[in-house]
UniProtKB/TrEMBL annotation:
It comes from the Eukaryota. PANTHER family: UDP-N-ACETYLGLUCOSAMINE--PEPTIDE N-ACETYLGLUCOSAMINYLTRANSFERASE 110 KDA SUBUNIT. It comes from Ceratitis capitata. This is (Mediterranean fruit fly) hypothetical protein. The lineage of its organism: Eukaryota, Metazoa, Ecdysozoa, Arthropoda, Hexapoda. The keyword Transcription regulation does not apply.
Amino acid sequence: LFLGLLELAHREYQAVDYENAEKHCMQLWRQDSTNTGVLLLLSSIHFQCRRLDKSAQFSTLAIKQNPLLAEAYSNLGNVYKERGQLPEALENYRRAVRLKPDFIDGYINLAAALVAARDMESAVQAYITALQYNPDLYCVRSDLGNLLKALGRLEEAKVSNLRELYQYINIHMQFAFV
């Protein structure tokens, strides 16, 4: 029953039905206040609803339950970034990717915060690291290409955007023959 309700809450969250997702998560939280999956989902729901204090609260509760939970640090980083507290956001994103070196969303969040903090070279490295784990991330490749272009590194930007174009064409060609 617990897992079924958590799965339902995840589906509601993905369907942008935050009200019902929150209602079901709160039911689950009352049953087990230590479940980090529920805490992370509550953090994400509150973040999407711009309730940053509550999002931070549930991220912090998740971290207390499991100090090695990279996703909780990333969620907390999102709150800090949204509040304009870039040093705190960067600290949390860096902790997230240290804890989980293959955490692609963590690198993407880190890169965006580094751009906001005007540390462009470190942002390039964060995007490249994300692409090393999954080279098929078109949005990341596009963001990297745009950043390289803004830095005047046009040849690198062209290579990044060409790869993106080829991957896009290949995927659409595959669907054309299905």
